[in-house]
Amino acid sequence: MKDFEQPPDDTNRGDWRTVARLLRLIVPHRRLLLGSIGVLILLSGLTLTAPWAFALAVDSMAKGNAAGLVRYVTLFGVLAAFRVAAEFLRLQVTVLTGQRVIADVRARLFRHIHALPVRFFDKTPVGTLVTRVTNDVEALAEMFSSGIAAIFHDLLILVLLVPVLFWLNPTMALVSLAALPAVVGISLGFGRRMRLAYRETRARLSSLNGFQQEAFTGIPVTRLFRREPLMVERFDRRNLAFRDANFKAIFNFALFWPIVDSVATLALAAVLVLGANEATGGTLTHRELTYFWIALQMFFHPIREMSDRFNVLLAALAAGERVFTILDEVPETPDAPGALAPARLKGEVEFKDVHFSYLDGEPVLRGISFKVRKGETVAIVGPTGAGKTSILALLSRLWDPQQGAVLVDGEDVRSYARHALRSRIAVVMQDVFLFAGTVEDNLRLGNASLAREDLERACATVHADFLGKLDGGFSADIRERGGNLSVGQKQLLAFARALASDPDILVLDEATSSIDTETESLIQDALPKLLLGRTAIVVAHRLSTVREADRILCLHHGRLAEEGTHEELLKKGGLYARLCQLSYASLNGRGRI
Ligand SMILES: Nc1ncnc2c1ncn2[C@@H]1O[C@H](COP(=O)(O)OP(=O)(O)OP(=O)(O)O)[C@@H](O)[C@H]1O
Ligand SMILES: [Mg+2]
Q1: Sign of dihedral through CA atoms 244, 245, 248, 254?
Q2: How far is the CA of 392 from the centre of ligand 2 (A)?
Q3: In Å, how far are 258, 391, 411, 416, 539 from 400, measured between CA atoms?
Q4: Alpha helices in 407-510 (DSSP H)
Q5: Counting atoms of ligand 1 from 1, which one is nearest the CA of 382?
Q6: What angle do CA 423, 429, 433 make, to 5 degrees?
Q7: 430 CA → ligand 2 middle, Å
Q8: Where are the alpha helices (DSSP H) in 169-284?
Q9: Do residues 497 and 443 make contact, with C-beta atoms less than 8 angstroms apart?
Q10: CA of residue 357 to ligand 1 center, whole Å
């Protein structure tokens, strides 16, 4: 794994596209958005009118008009109360919009990731994926919940206030407006630096999370190989890199905010001097000066806040880019229109001159051809890394070959609907994966059409009935990745779940790890029952399994070196015979090939 995930090169091209794509996420929630805009307009109106009532009250007080004072203070109170209510509504609506949009994004990401080809997961560490669906999405949430609404509110106040300021006093209005271009200029100047800093923090966070995820999963290995100091050192490197990247981002912001604030304060001071002059000259009334003062505060408030808003936007932009790179990953090619979806398969399998590589230029299978007839059991043997597991992966279409074809019942597997094909081919993988949940969840794997009796029968057939005897029976908890079951027990559970769906083709990648003699004899006994009456392709490591197969394919460096029955191949004295000789305990049938 690379030491750190590198942030993407800086190009401005994608920025506006990212902004447009982020905004498009709101489209499905346009009603709520319109609602928020309505509330914001109401709020802006109240924000602007309440001070006017206040100014009138001040004016009445200056003139000694008691009735006027009471009237305007009451009006001010009512407007202020409405404003509080509108503010409450604004928070509700904007947070609701933000959370809805983000829940959508999360759902889209999760679905999209589930539709991506297996290749994608080969190159993407799990921890970095988790970062994107949690931390990056959180950064977006902030923008949708507060950022956009706040910016809209600020802009609305600015736009509404400009004519009011001009009406009150054009010179002072012009001086106030002069601050705007300066603030925009400074923001643009800082924008690029801050965006880069945010990109870096997100990439570093992703590296850190990826590393932690791997570290926690590998703790037993770390212990056994005394890797703790090494892991701590690697963690520290990533942790400090993240801290420094964060610091860089905050440093930029810490520089940016006071500069914007000083510009705003300078402009405010200039306006005040001007205003004071005019008031003493008698060209400005009390009422006007009071309102102008409050209006100016309102005018400069959003300008001062701009750095904050900008910050949220830039962080969201960096996070958005990362979320979109995942959404832009091309999913598995969809099933062809009119794809075959037979309820049952006959169970004939054929590989026709199949060439396959995981990585360009590194062939794994080089021209594999063989046929498996209905009901036949074929064993695949060969040295480690020969390509046995890869053959199985092609059959259930986890990958597609670059050349040649894999046929099931005479049809290319690519012409089947994936779900239909996979529902009739059961696979028991080399290392069994179990989900956190109950025994029953893991046996059923979401297949609601299976009755409880089917599961019980399958368990009994493959000697996995110990599962029913666990504390809690089928409802017993299985910990993440089956941590509370032994390797042999997991294997038996995997047999049971393969058998439960009564598949037409069974694909078995025999575990190479040793299991205790008792479990092994259970598995030996279970296997023939599992294979009975269906086509089976078994990557076999146990001599006993190989012997019982109808035919043996012997694989070497991605090529089919030999094919025949156990006796035929032994007689031939080739690779298979050598493999058998090497397996030390071949005499009692428990040797491993
Ligand atoms: N996801 C992958 N990405 C890249 N290369 C891979 C991937 N999976 C396997 N390989 C490579 O493909 C070759 C064949 O692997 P495969 O898993 O099919 O071997 P195998 O015959 O099943 O070995 P074993 O008996 O050890 O299980 C190996 O050289 C391996 O390095
Ligand atoms: Mg393998």
Answers
A1: negative
A2: 9
A3: 58, 10, 14, 13, 19
A4: 418-424, 439-444, 452-461, 487-500
A5: 21
A6: 90
A7: 7
A8: 170-217, 219-224, 228-281
A9: yes
A10: 10
Q: Whose CA is nearest to atom 4 of ligand 1?
A: 358
Separation of alpha carbons 564 and 566, rounded Å: 7
pLDDT in tens, 517-576: 777 787 778 788 878 889 999 998 877 778 888 999 999 999 999 999 999 999 998 989
Count CB neighbours of 66 within 10 A: 10
**Which pTM value belongs to this model?**
0.79
If DSSP codes are grouped into helix, strand and coil, which group holds residue 416? strand
Name residues contacting ligand 1 (CB within 6 A): 122, 358-359, 364, 382, 384-390, 430
The CATH number of 18-327 is which of 1.20.1560.10, 1.10.540.10, 1.10.287.1260, 2.160.10.10? 1.20.1560.10
> If residue 356 lies in a helix (H) or strand (E), which one and from where to where?
strand 349-357
Residues in the chain: 593
Quick check: 430 and 385 in contact, CB under 8 A? no
Are 18-327 and 373-398+415-588 the same fold in CATH? no
pLDDT tens figures, 85-105: 998 998 888 888 888 999 999
Tell me yes or no: is domain 373-398+415-588 CATH 3.40.50.300: yes
Domain assignments of the chain as residue spans, ordered by start: 18-327, 373-398+415-588
Q: How far apart are CA 442 and CA 193, in angstroms?
A: 50
119, 122, 389, best to mutate for ligand 1 pocket (most atoms within 8 Å of CB):
389
Distance from Cα 389 to the centre of ligand 2, integer Å: 4
Using CA positions, which residue lies closest to atom 28 of ligand 1?
Answer: 385
Q: What are phi and psi for residue 404, nearest 5 degrees?
A: 80, -175
Most ligand 1 atoms within 8 A of CB, residue of 119, 364, 559 to mutate: 364
Over residues 351-369, the pLDDT tens digits come to: 999 999 999 999 999 999 9
Q: How far is the CA of 366 from the centre of ligand 1 (A)?
A: 13
Task: Return the closest-CA partner of residue 325 out of 145, 203, 207.
Answer: 203
Short-list 553, 517, 518, 547, CA closest to 531: 547
- Number of the ligand 1 atom closest to the C-alpha atom of 386: 21
Query: Of 108-117, 276-285, 480-489, 510-519, where does mean pLDDT reach its minimum?
Result: 510-519
Contact 365, 356 (CB under 8 A): yes
